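Section 3.1: Structural characterization of target chains.
Under the original work plan, the team committed to producing a structural model for every single-chain target entering the pipeline before any wet-lab resources were allocated. The record below documents one such target. The sequence was received from the expression subgroup and is listed exactly as submitted; it comprises 174 residues.
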Amino acid sequence: MRWQVNSERTLYQDQWVHVLTADVELPDGRHLDHRLIRSAPGAGAVVVVDGKVLLLWRHRFITDTWTYEIPVGAIGNDEPAVAAAREVEEETGWRPGPLRPLIYTQPSPGLMNSEHHIFRADSAEYIGPPVDGFESERVEWVPLDDIRRLIDKRDIVTGTTLVALLYFLVNVSG
């Protein structure tokens, strides 16, 4: 069953986000006034070296929580892999080795069109402090064996990071 979008109207728009209301017709003929968010696609990477994954420990003010996350950011005008490498470098100070596709995810398709292209790297070179040092409290190489415990403690909660790390653990490292 496909929902039909009859119209959309902008509620707010800036360089980062576009919030709209949509008149959506359900298959049974009912209408919903549905909100949606459009945003640019993002890219990031799971960088694993010697059984440890490169993560950011950061505060998310919206939920007032601290969490480990993989580096992810806007693609902009770059190809997804180029953007992923750029984001890793800017946010962590580590330049990832060759990137290979890991997983594609749509974190919340019931509300937004956000899409994330996630890559993996098996090597990295330290090039200096992060350019975007404001992104995190610290950058850390976390043992892959600790990931399950960190998820259970709710130290890893963000959707894209969860999807990427769990996919990596199930399909790549095991």
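The CA atoms of residues 107 and 159 lie 6 Å apart.
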